[in-house]
Design brief:
With 331 residues, the chain is an alpha/beta fold. Helix content is 32%, strand content 24%. It has 2 domains: 5-179, Thiolase/Chalcone synthase (Peroxisomal Thiolase, Chain A, domain 1); 180-326, 3-Layer(aba) Sandwich (Peroxisomal Thiolase, Chain A, domain 1). Strands 1-7-6-4-5 form a 5-stranded mixed sheet, sandwiched between helices. A 4-stranded mixed sheet has the order 8-13-12-11, with helices on both faces. The protein is globular. Bound molecules: coenzyme A. It comes from Ohtaekwangia koreensis. Homodimer.
């Protein structure tokens, strides 16, 4: 029987207009453009401003961008998965809101919460639906409105994150392209170092939780950094080795954009030179679920059919993983 693989057949993306620069952050917390640039590689990030603007706004714009390019009928979409930790509401799923807004009226849809690894978790899930033969068109979105859960008095965290979303369309193929391998990992011990304490069922919102600023991201940056450097590089090396990938036959490393130093360490570990590393952290910062699809969106025109792509991510949970795929089209 011919093997069915899930190929990425379209990409969409969206970042909001407002640009929060390092210079503006200098007026908000005690920091400097020099410190932020040298420690993280970030120069600016996008912020979704305005009342009643949830992450669905970003997801809808990203999917509409993909629909305009691929020209598929949204009624043909079978499933929409949204990887996010900043859902519009605890329920319903933001994926439901996006699916209806873009006209994917025949799709079932759900959110996936794996923080910065959310997109590769959702991509692997969506690819499995296609490979099983069950579904023919799956839209995988990754995106976050991190500004909604950012404490803009905490200089070690607020300088990193931004808002944005990207998406891909997955369709079946019998050609030698598509998602080939994935390795996904998690470790609940990571809760200590990166979490948001209040607003969930363990600590519902109260006057005290608001007064203590517990509805924002809590991060022990240097501890997260150490776990991220080791685990993202390890999993990338693991998937590289078992698929006989080499620095020569990998066309692009597509790394989660958390910190340029973590990206450099991952590239170094698999022997990939900087010209083959997708990077847009300087413009968008860390958009959590959004980083990897936003890279594919930014670099789409440079990608060629048959290119070997190595996706790698690390995030809250802890969660981490890597995906090996062959690009399926020329733009
Ligand atoms: C957050 C991060 C940039 C901090 O960089 P770092 O080199 O680890 O810095 P540290 O936290 O050790 O802090 C070093 C010093 O810089 C200071 N500092 C922290 N943020 C600062 C800022 N924005 N501006 C100036 N100084 C800052 C600290 O207070 C500390 O000062 P001290 O030595 O006087 O106590 C880095 O740890 C990081 O990127 N971690 C991973 C984050 C991540 O990827 N998270 C998302 C999950 S994927």
């Amino acid at each position: 029987m011919t093997k069915i693989r899930a190929a990425i057949t379209g990409v969409g993306g969206y970042v909001p207009d407002y640009i929060l620069t390092n210079q503006e952050l200098e007026t908000m917390v005690e920091t400097s453009d020099e410190w932020i640039t040298s420690r993280t590689g970030i120069k600016e990030r996008r912020i979704l401003k305005g009342e009643n603007q949830g992450v669905s706004v970003l997801g809808i714009a990203a999917v509409n961008n993909m629909l305009a390019k691929t020209k598929i009928d949204p009624k043909e979409i079978d499933c929409v998965i949204f990887a996010t930790v900043t859902a519009d509401m605890t329920f319903p799923a933001t994926a439901n809101i996006v699916a209806t807004a873009v006209g994917a009226v025949n799709a079932f849809s759900f959110d996936m919460g794996a923080a910065c690894s959310g997109f590769i978790y959702a991509l692997t899930t969506g690819a499995s639906f296609i490979q099983s033969g069950m579904y023919k068109k799956v839209v995988v979105i990754g995106g976050d409105k991190m500004s909604a859960i950012m404490d803009y008095t905490d200089r070690s965290t607020c300088i990193i994150f931004g808002d944005g979303a990207g998406c891909v369309l997955l369709e079946p193929t019998t050609e030698d392209v598509g998602v080939i391998d994935a390795e996904l990992k998690s470790d609940g011990a990571g809760e200590t170092y990166l979490h948001m304490k209040a607003g969930g069922s363990r600590m519902p919102a109260s006057q005290e939780s608001i007064d203590k600023r517990l509805h924002y991201v809590y991060q022990e940056g240097s501890a997260v950094f150490k776990f991220a450097v080791t685990n993202m590089a390890d999993v990338a090396a693991q998937i590289t080795a078992r698929n006989n990938l080499t620095p020569e036959n990998i066309a692009w490393l597509v790394p989660h954009q958390a910190n340029k130093r973590i990206i450099d360490a991952t590239a170094h570990r698999v022997g990939i030179t900087e010209d083959k590393v997708m990077m847009n952290i300087e413009r968008y910062g860390n958009t959590t679920g959004g980083t990897i699809p936003l890279l594919l969106w930014d670099y789409e025109k440079q990608l060629k059919k048959g290119d070997n792509l190595l996706l790698a991510a690390f995030g809250g949970g802890f969660t981490w993983g890597a995906v090996y795929l062959k690009w399926a089209y020329n733009s």
